[in-house]
Design goal:
homopentamer; alpha+beta; Beta Polymerase, domain 2; Methane Monooxygenase Hydroxylase, Chain G, domain 1
């Protein structure tokens, strides 16, 4: 959850690139496609990109790893990337947004994947949409875009026939679609937590609720600004998006809105989890107090009776009656019974185990 | 409450349909109507629909079950449904919305009914409003639209004389009207819960409050976007809605706003229920503590007195006086009385049973 | 608080009227007025209304009771009331709003009065503002409009000289002005509750806070939409309101805004009441715990001392010393004194009665 | 805090004035000024005002006390005050606002002063800005405008050289500037309360927090609407404010925004105070419980040991051993030591006094 | 956190300067630059500034310390600073904003630095952007602008080639960039607090959470208005900002939005910290109650048994049996065992130490 932004020292001139210490060297792969051909080249250098571009077909240049400023500047020269755009690409995380430059439209996206430990992992994907090319940049290798590549490879389809803007749409749409399985996974976690918080209201459960809330906050930070950015792509008069692609982006926009609303709903449910937690703890305290009060209220008076007949006064007539001892025991029993009856009438002797009451909860509405 | 959206794998090309495993085969029924005739055909195939359409009258094609892509694509070809529209129809749940296509207006609605177990059940109804036809799609058989069918069958009325847009209005209006009984049912539940939370503040009651809140959240998710969608139908310059029908949609819009506001009010009341719950539990803890404190404070000092006169010192003059024993008992009584007087003055001996105090609550304002 | 809306079964054709079971028959009264005359007719039939209308003067037709569809439809025919407007009049409660029709402007208001039990009672008043008539409809007899009638009767005034729109303004203004005494009554209740919640934090007090909050919610639901509706009357280009009357409606709008803001403030204060409640209960638990802890901590150790000297070991030298008993008692006193000193230093022996501390609260700021 | 608005009975004709029972008679003072002269007349009658006005210079007529309708109506006639404007002047409190009339601009302000008991006191000042006069009305004598008067008296300055609109700006600016010392006073109170709530979490402290919150609510109600009103003066095309004065009003607007934001910040801090209060009480309960638990857990088992050796069985060999008594005492000591060690390990024996921990809070960050 | 604004007494004429008692005398430094030259003069007087200005190059005049009205007025005369602008410069803190005057654009910024004690320190920097000069004013010496100066000194760069507006952008950008390290520092604090609140839920921890929240509030107050001000610089048609610089300000705007959103996220996390705190305290109370209840419930009944056999009745047959004593001890053991079994089944004997449970939290998701 914690926020670290890669950036040069404050006050550096705009365009200064701050690379990560352990940044991976860029691996560039190129997909060139027209109606007939889908040529795929992996691990190429910038010269190859330049050559491929000369062919005039639609080009998808994918850069994974941002560790070599020489390569980045070479690409920037080739595609005339504005220094500020290059900064936005390198200095992750940026807030998702879109900006129009003379040569292309920049779209900063945030991708989410299920990480190795099952927790969602977020990563920035910067997308440059030119007239006949799409550039994508990300820091770590591995992404959610394989389905798009697969569709490109699988022969003549709508994706190949359309231009770079439709390809960019397909990439953005895929990135947003990948929020759905994560949202559904969170949905399962909330449902599981609703049972758990009743059965096991410990600080450990609380820590999990907090982690869930933090994840939801980050999901929101990933999806809401993309909604605005996609909307801007649809509404603004950018020359890099054709009208027919705008129809598809509208669909993409609807997904953003739906995801955003579901995440808001989950945030409310997660807040409810905390409330439930608090009140289950209160109830448990209540139960513990009841046990203490019942035990103390029954036995302390009896102890008094025993204490009274343990006094050493010379003149205590009851002590010398043969019925004294059974009478004293009987008095004790009667007192204990009276207290039990009183507590029973107050309803304190019923079982208050939350987990137990939960089990038979379905019978009435 | 949990969110599952039917969708193809992320990254599939737009227009790919993801059908549910257990989806029912489509059952198509057609109502053809003009000023004189209301012909109703059930369980027909797409060819029949095509034939009926040729007659030129207003047509209502109702598709229940979305399990056969062949049928869906045949309908899509017949009515020129855009691939994205078809996706929105099949991939439920969509957020309620309206979208204009060249051939028709798509309106995604969400219907609510009282399910078999008394809980509200939500289902998507997709409505396509063409120049002289209305198409409705839903996943499960059974809907809330029988009153509309009934009115069509019952001879010449305003519904038959008007075109497809008025028919679509009647369908949307009926779907929204069905929120009213559910809202009133929730209103009863809240009122019942307000009594229950005072009388029985157990985790079971809490679970019910949470369920109520989740239902209200879902009601809101069903009604607010429909308000926007209906407003869009009224304001936007869509050719498929006539001006005279817009007047009626304004009424429909008012219902959405009223339902939305009532649901918001109920959400506030449900939040208040939780607060009441918490404070009733606090009060109960208080009552329990009072009992414990009173019992312990009265009997522990008396036990000390008994203990003192049970000591075995050789020289304890009181023990040998004939008035010693009654004096000790008298001392105990006096001490107990003193404590009771003290607690009485503090107001701790009054009955603090919430249910009891509730009963005589109406006397003053 | 609970929501019940009179409406026909969902899916009925628009214009179907759902009358209440126990609806009262309409009582129509007519006030006809021009610069010279103020003629008042009570309990008339629709024909009389028609006759009076023919005179061309400004007409106020007041209908109390909505139980006879024949009369309602006759009025609708006479004044060309749109079926949807008639529905809004009959199917109470509608959300306050204004709608323009060809023949008149519909204004749905919500009136508040102090009921017989002192609680506020809400009722819908539907107002139709025509070119030279005002129609008012309400379900129950008795309203807050008597001051308007009185002013009409009292000779030549601004009210008589102006047209129907000014009369409608006078009616709306009077309805909104009647919110002020209710708001002031709630203000008193909140002030009283602020004292009470300190002195008597019982579930009964809590139930009253909740009732107060529900009333405030309903006040808000009555006044906010009227603000929007009045604003619409001022801004929209409706021909039924003259410019000179708009100046007066601006005043009316200011009242709505002020009432709305005061109600919001009270809602915050009511939320604060609940917080105070919770914390007073917490403090009381605290006080109870202190008493228990002090009593137990003082007497349990003393009981141990008594117990020790009640043991029956053969060799317990202290028991046989003449100073043994007084020494034991002295030890007990010393222990009790030590505990009291300790608790005193901790500040636990100060009086913690909230009501008491409240009384001397005014001395410092 | 409680809301009382002076107003005629609901339904009175607009323009009816409701005067307070104990309203003071109006004291009128006039300041007439041009580049050379600043003539000041106090306690004059309406005729004098009329005479002064005839001179054609800039006029400031200040009316303190609204108890005489004759005087008010005479002024209204003289300056052509609209009946609704007169109502707004007399029926306090109005929400701060500005309204344009044909003859002048009405500005309803709310003034705050430090009252005699140190609490802020609010009062309405109605300002009428005409082409060459400013009228100010307030209910109680004494105001915050003396600095303005002083500046007028002090010879030729920017205030005298400019027209009535600049004079009005000076008055509004002074009224708003007087919020600053009150805000700073509240700032001190919050800071003091942050210490106090830790040291003395009693209901009395709570009552003060609530009073603070109520004051902040009222401050907000005084300043936010003035922001809108000043903005309206700047933006609207009113002829009574010159462009050069608008520049100064922009400064005034900035002050309103800053005050509003600071007040919002304080409202958040005050809400935080309540949270702190609640948690300090919780912590205290915790501390009390710890003391009880430690005392009871140590002494109750020891009492059992004493009780066991106080039993009267014939055969209890330990009783007859000479080491029996010391052994029993040793056992008790060992048990007490064990319990202390256990509680020490749990960290329960550390001092939990909040005030103490607060004192050494500054050492680490 | 507390709010003190330097300002003249309320009601002073606009333009009156209120200087701080201990205000430092102004130290003026001038940087004159064109494509070739970067001349830097420190500690100069106003005449030198005037001379430098005559050269016609881009000028950066930096004033640190606002303690001498003569110097300030001399500068105001030289650069034609409007009295209201001068007031905004001197009367700190102003809300960040931008205002257009005839001669220049005023931008009020708020700078944040890490203070000597590690806490963030805020200071106002007023920036005047003229056609060929930039003036910066601040109260205390030392700022975050050294990187900008460094870049100016380091020979020909984009900064020198561009005009005064680009220089102003570089200053604003640097000020905003300096929020990033502070935000990251707060991020670390929140992370540390999340562990601490579990391990040590004392009032001291609470006081730190409150301080953190106050800092976040102040960060927000510093950054949100700057977002609006930068946006105004971009959108408004001010002649002092060229179009090419607007592109860079867009980048600056993005940083403001990102910082604002991260701060909002942290405010939510800080609110969550408080909730965690409350519930950890509740859990601790629970644990304490459990210990008390277990100890009391086990030992009080045993004490009763001992008390019973310590009674002095003549006829108590068990006392005289040789197995009496072991039987009594056995009974006690059995009772204790029964209680332990009961509590074990209830799960009360498990270790409830929050810190402990936290340590093994990572195993499952």
């Amino acid at each position: 959850m914690m926020f670290r932004k890669r950036r040069p020292p404050a006050g550096s001139r705009p365009g200064t690139l701050a690379l990560a210490q352990n940044a991976l060297p860029p691996r560039i792969s190129v997909i060139r496609l027209n109606r007939d051909v889908c040529e795929e080249l992996v691990d190429v250098d910038v010269e190859t990109v330049e050559r491929e571009r000369a062919a005039g077909d639609t080009l998808w240049v994918d850069v994974q790893g941002l560790g070599d400023p020489t390569v980045l500047h070479a690409l920037a020269d080739l595609f005339q990337i504005h220094p500020l755009a290059l900064e936005d690409i390198v200095h992750t995380p940026q807030r998702p947004k879109t900006e129009r430059y003379d040569e292309h439209q920049l779209y900063i996206s945030r991708m989410v994947r299920s990480g190795e430990d099952g927790h969602p992992v977020f990563e920035q994907v910067a997308i440059l949409i030119g007239s006949n090319y799409v550039l994508t940049f990300q820091e770590q290798p591995g992404d959610v875009l394989d389905p798009v590549r697969q569709r490109l490879r699988q022969g003549v389809g709508v994706l190949r026939q359309n231009g770079a803007d439709y390809l960019a749409y397909a990439i953005i749409d895929t990135i947003i679609d990948y929020y759905y399985p994560i949202v559904e996974q969170l949905s399962d976690q909330i449902e599981a937590m609703e049972v758990r918080v009743m059965a096991d209201p410990t600080p450990r459960t609380l820590a999990r609720i907090n982690r869930l809330k933090a994840t939801l906050l980050e999901m929101r930070r990933g999806i809401w600004p993309q909604r605005d950015a996609v909307n801007q792509l649809i509404r603004d008069d950018t020359p890099f998006i054709s009208d027919s692609t705008r129809v598809y982006l509208r669909d993409c926009y609807d997904h953003c809105v739906q995801l955003g609303e579901v995440i808001e709903t989950y945030r409310e449910l997660a807040a409810g989890l905390f409330n439930t937690y608090l009140s289950v703890v209160s109830n448990r305290t209540n139960e513990i107090m009841k046990v203490l009060t019942i035990m103390a209220s029954i036995f302390i008076p009896l102890t008094l009776v025993a204490g009274v007949y343990g006094m050493n006064f010379d003149v205590m007539p009851e002590l010398h009656r043969p019925w004294g001892y059974p009478a004293a025991l009987g008095l004790m029993l009667a007192m204990a019974g009276g207290m039990l009856w009183y507590f029973g009438r107050k309803g304190w002797l019923r079982n208050g185990d939350p987990a137990a009451t939960l089990r038979d909860d379905g019978d009435d509405a």
